[in-house]
Amino acid sequence: MSQYPASGVLFANDRKQSEKQPDYTGSIEIDHDTIRDLVNQMNSGVDNPKANLAGWRKMSKAGKQFLSIRASVMRERQQTSSYQAPPQNNNIDDEIPF
After folding, report:
1. What is the 8-class DSSP label of residue 36?
2. How many C-beta atoms surround the C-beta of residue 77 within 10 A?
3. Do residues 83 and 40 make contact, with C-beta atoms less than 8 angstroms apart?
4. Average pLDDT of each block of 10 consecutive residues along the chain (98 residues)?
5. In the chain, what are the domain boundaries?
């Protein structure tokens, strides 16, 4: 598993000049596990591979609100597809020290 999960940010588009321009803009860095999963989906016959997304509202140090986003490998697939996402290795120590 990669050191960091796929993550990014979306800020309000303060340069928006028309309704056709996006409300938010930003970027995402995609980790190797998510890229491998997308490629595996395509190799398994999925025409439009997907990743799960999650987002959190946050405040920047400059006082601007933004969305922090995280992508992860797709866990649920349609039953018509033979694709199955690889198991995620979280390296969690389940031993409770008491």
Report:
1. H
2. 15
3. yes
4. 79 95 95 92 94 94 94 68 59 57
5. 6-73
